[in-house]
Amino acid sequence: MGETRDSNEFAQQLTACLMSGPVALVVDNLNGKLDSGILAGIATAGVYRGRILGRSEMVDLKIRALLVLTANNPQTSNQIARRCLPIRIVPNSENPYLRDGFKQPDLKAYVDANRAGLVGAGLLLARAWTAAGCPAPKCKTLGSFENWSRVIGGILEHSGVPGLMTNAQDFYAASDTDNPSPDFLC
To answer: What distance in Å separates the CA atoms of residue 22 and residue 25, rounded to the nearest whole number?
Structure first.
């Protein structure tokens, strides 16, 4: 989906998109401050109620899609920030779009060609965590995402990748300062 600042138009686009049952919902290259009650709600509620375009009919849609928002150094409201898993890429280049020399020069083609093995590796990590008794991670759980924090944090820690969401506090601190909230992450 593309970005729109008109909340009514965004709601209509979102309804139409979610009705198709996507695996992932990607809103790419966001600009400006992200402060959407709609996105905040669907990130935690699991259900979205929207009006079908061109009809006076509402539909309740279960949110099963991965929600991905991309932006360069985004500014967000506190409500959006606390629902984000920030991924910071530091290219160490003035013009990162001109970089080359990647281990996988065509990452999309590599993933497409190796999907089964990559999915299998992820499932193997989850199975190893399960076989170990599902040990709880050392980091705190994320409010409204307790089970997700426990499972993903546990799998990552068991696999040797500790510190789920340790970078989120910096992201949160840079969010909307008009309504500061207390610390909530590990």
So the answer is: 6
User: Cβ distance 98 to 51 under 8 Å?
Assistant: no
To 5 degrees, how large is the angle CA 59–CA 61–CA 67? 135
Dihedrals phi, psi of 104, to nearest 5 degrees: -120, 95
| Residue 173 in tokens | 């601190």
Indicate the SS3 state at residue 56: coil
Alpha carbon 184 to its chain centroid, in Å, reads: 18
pLDDT tens for the chain, 186 residues: list them.
777 778 788 888 888 888 998 999 888 888 878 888 888 888 888 888 988 888 888 999 998 888 888 888 888 888 888 888 888 788 888 888 898 889 999 999 999 999 999 999 999 999 999 999 999 999 877 778 889 899 999 999 999 999 888 877 778 788 865 555 444 333
* CA distances for 39 relative to 15, 25, 46, 56, 114, angstroms: 12, 11, 11, 22, 32
Q: Is the sign of the CA dihedral 61, 63, 64, 68 positive or negative?
A: positive
